[in-house]
Amino acid sequence: MDDDWGDLDGFVVMKMCFAFVIFMGDLLF
Fold it and tell me: Does this UniProt record's set of keywords contain Transmembrane helix (predicted)?
């Protein structure tokens, strides 16, 4: 397994989820 790709993928997914939560929070609250 490629550790670099795994770390990068996890980081991108984490940032996407974080941005999505903030975006939804702005809409709901």
Answer: yes
Tell me the pLDDT tens digit for each residue of 1-29: 556 666 778 889 999 999 999 999 988 77
Amino acid identity at 24: M
Cβ-Cβ contacts under 8 Å for 19 (sequence gap 6 or more): none
Q: What share of the chain is helix, strand, coil (3-state, %, to 5)?
A: 90, 0, 10
- Whole-angstrom CA distances from 16 to 1, 21 are 23, 9
Confidence (pTM): 0.50
